[in-house]
Write a structure and sequence with these properties.
- This protein is α+β, with helices and mostly antiparallel strands and about 650 residues long.
- The chain has twelve helices and 40 strands.
- A hairpin with a 2-residue loop joins β6 and β7.
- α2 runs parallel beside α5 and α4 crosses α5.
- The radius of gyration is 26 Å and the shape is globular.
Length: about 650
């Protein structure tokens, strides 16, 4: 007769197998391995040999490799990064104060992510670490080193370089020799070492198969593994397991390294405290990872010797996290440890808002874009999300801050949203911050709960009329990325545009994911000071004399207005590395088709008038006949010397 836990596992898996394009789940629980490799009981919910990119879970791997060097006395955590990377330089002298530890706990003050060619389709390349050094050489810091934690990818690519410089080994080879081999994990590698493997999962964008996805940021996100071997890696943090690290280094990694009111980081690990587990006396650490098309969550209970991994192609990291926690709870229950589920807090509404909140009306830069907050007649809080289209939410004042509601605000007949969401304000150092508390239910799984610094109020930034006019003129333009390699995933979403907040002196950048302060007619500057993940991936932007747009992420864009028209007179396109060729599809070719002959190292994308991908030669099942939509666009990218030949089919 099947036990209740078995029924629950089948229920959980049933939900996820329906929802995901591809899923792999590993649960490892058992005794600690001794020198004789004592037998371990292993429970595998749905494990096969499919290899996934674990995304930012890779940060735990690269941190561990540096900690191995700490164990050997070859690296000191609190030594300056420049001691190990003498060619690491920035346009900000404060970089000299960045330590190895600060890279691991996200307190370096680095802007965030060098995005150039970070995700490639059916292609990979090495040397990204050196490219990151070149990109950082022209950057400033967004904060003093050590001031606060803000998620940062570039720091972990620097850790990868430290491993390579100290050991004299390529990172891929080091991982194979000193991580995968001691674990007996034959699938753990990087996108370089596993390139071309048929074991790699395919990735899907908008339901379309694009084949294999490779992350070139090996330290920040480039580890590949099966769910089973990712669990095996997690088990290396079990108490008494010395295959990879000393007990001291493991404790250092999973301890609270830096904390803010709503975020705790370990070294490499994003989460080192989980209240719902700590209430039962269980220490749990976790790390999630996302690429363009893959999602991974790894959760480990070191003392209870449980390692859970859920990794998918498609889906979302939020769903993976809910699944991983549900499985963790099942195994804990087998050890007679009951974890209480998260519940929605009860609130008492007040249909009037204290007058002192009036000062909080205005615009806020947030992790989800730009918000406008108002208090109509001081009866409720109106939150508008400003983008290409505007959406609106309503919050009612309560003893838990402003709680999102549904119902009739005029009559006061409201109830809180099923997925609890609350906003409150906090003033610190002359700034006003938004704090978000939210809880989400994943059907058939568990309810999640989190709180974070979410937004920062925009104060008026005085700008000259000349500067304001220059950026207002650019509101009329759409910019297209042209600097990426032909295989870059960036061509799936290559556009950016601007919306100017005239009375405030800021610009909302759609496609560059941020709100920036106007400096002058050609420069925008990141300004957010929010502690935590709301301050991740900041960027400065400038326009050169030719009108091209540059970002400190390493990406470059040109205005669509410089594109030539694609007509039947265009019969071939010469390719140039680092400079894709864009065309506006002429109305004379609207709804016709072309066929092409192109070099292997090249790609062609066609977009509709809204900028959505209609066709790509990177699609696994792309057709030889390429549609040309009315008002659309086409781009050709490839290597130097390549030529794409075009045959215009006869129009009906």
């Amino acid at each position: 007769m099947e036990d209740e836990d078995g029924k629950m596992r089948k229920k959980l898996l049933g939900v996820f197998l329906i929802m995901m394009s591809a899923i792999s789940i590993g649960v490892l629980a058992g005794t600690v391995r001794a020198a004789k490799a004592e037998q371990k009981q292993e429970t595998e919910a749905s494990v096969d040999d499919t290899v996934y990119c674990v995304g930012s879970v890779s940060k735990v791997y690269v941190t561990l490799t540096v900690m191995q060097l700490v164990d050997q006395g070859k690296v000191e955590l609190d030594a300056p990064v420049s001691d190990y990377l003498p060619d690491f330089k920035m346009a900000d002298e404060r970089y000299k104060d960045i330590t190895v530890r600060m890279l691991m706990n996200h307190t370096s003050g680095l802007m965030g992510t060098s995005a150039e060619n970070i995700f490639l389709i059916n292609d990979t390349e090495g040397g990204r670490g050196e490219a990151v050094l070149r990109n950082l050489a022209n950057q400033r810091l967004k904060a003093d080193p050590g001031a606060y934690a803000a998620y940062c990818n570039d720091g972990f690519d620097l850790l990868q370089l430290i491993v390579e410089r100290v050991t004299g080994m390529e990172y891929s080879a080091y991982v194979e020799q000193y991580v995968a081999k001691p674990l007996g994990a034959d699938s753990i590698g990087t996108g370089l070492s596993l390139y071309g493997s048929e074991r790699l999962t395919n990735v899907y964008q908008e339901g379309i198969n694009y084949g294999k996805e490779y992350c070139t940021a090996l330290g920040a996100g480039g580890i590949y593994s099966t769910a089973r071997d990712t669990c095996e890696f997690g088990s290396a943090f079990f108490q008494g397991d010395h295959r990879l690290l000393s007990e001291e280094s493991k404790k250092e990694m999973i301890a609270i390294s830096v904390t803010s009111p709503y975020q705790t980081y370990g070294l490499g690990w994003d989460v080192v405290t989980m209240p719902q587990y700590e209430e039962t006396g269980v220490k749990v650490v976790a790390k999630g990872g996302d690429t363009g098309g893959q999602h991974t969550v790894l959760i480990v209970a070191p003392e209870e010797q449980i390692s859970v991994c859920v990794t998918t192609s498609g889906g979302s990291s939020g769903l993976n996290s809910a699944m991983a926690k549900a499985l963790m709870n099942i195994v804990l229950e087998e050890q007679e440890i009951k974890v209480e589920e998260v519940t929605i807090p009860e609130v008492n509404f007040t249909l009037s808002i204290p007058d002192e909140y009036q000062k909080y009306e205005g615009y806020y830069a947030t992790t989800d874009g730009l918000l406008e907050i108002a208090f109509p007649e001081m009866k409720y809080m109106q939150v508008k999300h400003l983008a290409e289209t505007t959406s609106e939410e309503h919050f009612v004042y309560s003893d838990r801050g402003f709680v999102r509601v549904k119902g009739d605000l005029a009559s006061g007949n409201v109830k809180q949203d099923t997925n609890f969401s609350a906003l409150s304000m906090d003033e610190k150092d002359g700034k006003v911050y938004l704090i978000s508390e939210h809880s989400e239910y994943h059907r058939g799984l568990l309810r999640s709960k989190s709180a974070e610094f979410y937004g920062e109020k925009l104060e008026v930034n005085p700008v000259s009329e000349k500067a304001l006019a220059a950026w207002k003129d650019r509101e009329k333009l759409v910019y297209e990325n042209y600097s990426e390699k032909y295989s870059s995933e960036n061509y799936l979403h290559p556009n950016c545009s601007f919306m100017v907040l005239e009375g405030l002196g800021y610009v909302l950048c759609d496609g560059l994911d941020g709100q920036l302060r106007i400096v002058d007619e050609d420069h925008l500057k990141a300004f957010i000071t929010i502690p935590g993940d709301a301050n991740r991936d900041q960027k400065d932007v400038w326009v050169d004399k030719a009108g091209n747009l540059h970002s400190t992420t390493g990406l470059t864009y040109q205005p669509r207005s410089v594109n030539e028209n694609f007509t039947d007179q265009v019969t071939e396109v010469s390719l140039k590395a680092g400079h894709a060729t864009w065309y506006n599809i002429d109305d004379s070719l609207a709804n016709s088709c072309i066929t092409i002959e192109r070099p292997e190292n090249s790609a062609v994308y066609v977009y509709d008038r809204f900028g959505e991908v209609l066709y790509s030669s990177q699609m696994v099942d792309y057709h030889s006949s390429i549609p040309l939509p009315k008002g659309g666009y086409i781009v050709f990218a490839g290597e130097d010397g390549g030529v794409v030949k075009i045959d215009h089919e006869t129009m009906n």
